[in-house]
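Writing this down once: the sequence line spells out the residues, with the fold written below as integer tokens. I am pasting one below:
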Amino acid sequence: MVITTVCIGQTLRSQSNAEKFFEKTGTLIQREFFEIGALKDVDFKVIHYTDLISKEKVCGLQLEIQVSSESNDIKFGILDADEVDGLIKAILIMKSTVFTRIPSNYEEAVFKSRGGFSLSCFWNKNKWSSIMQIEEFDIDSFVFLEVSDYDVFLGILNKAVPLLKL
């Protein structure tokens, strides 16, 4: 007997290592949240996950946005601790190299995390534009950024770095 399963129109959301750790079964996981700042409508929190049985620990950076004031619909993404340095480097390169150029063709640069967070910039209408996407495949989780927002973003990430070390 052969059973076939067909999934149409469903996309599996990517998960960070921290999210996978939290979803482990057969154990007791504790989460501790450290609020570190906000940019636009996005709240940034460092989360420490501890398996209270094995004493194993993992941490990550959570980005959270409430999509609508009428509903409690909250979108969130988590970057693993080891991805934050890459995001900082990407922002520094965007600021020093990408945003200082005037391309003759359409260009874009994209940073992606394991969990589906992305930060992209693109040349549009003779200026650089930027989008932070909190959740992969979710247009409601787009946050448009100005080039000037990147200094605030870096400040928040630099506050996160010491808290991401266990």
Remarks:
- The longest strand covers residues 29-39.
